Amino acid sequence: MIKHVVMLKFKKDAQEAGIGELEKKLGALPGEIPEIKSYEFGRDVIRSDRSCDFALVSVFEDIESLKKYQIHPRHQDVLKKIKDLCESVIVADFVF
Hints:
The structure is a single chain. This protein is an alpha+beta fold. It has one domain: Alpha-Beta Plaits, CATH 3.30.70. Helix 1 packs antiparallel against helix 3. It is globular, with a radius of gyration of 13 Å. It starts with a strand and ends with a strand.
């Protein structure tokens, strides 16, 4: 199993409406991409200086499933939104 972890830091001028749209798009992905085994995301609640603003943790059966997810058109649409909203994106993928 592969765990895919993504941490987002929003741009200072990111609008609430845009963040809400991102959450809606992310919430739809598990129903649209069968390779997703588990999918959780949310906004940071601590809001410390070293915190990211948003995190996503998802699970895939194997590397091939993760790769299918990454090139899926719905995921590509979400990536465009992330690029519009974020100043930085940190990703880690590991076997568990």
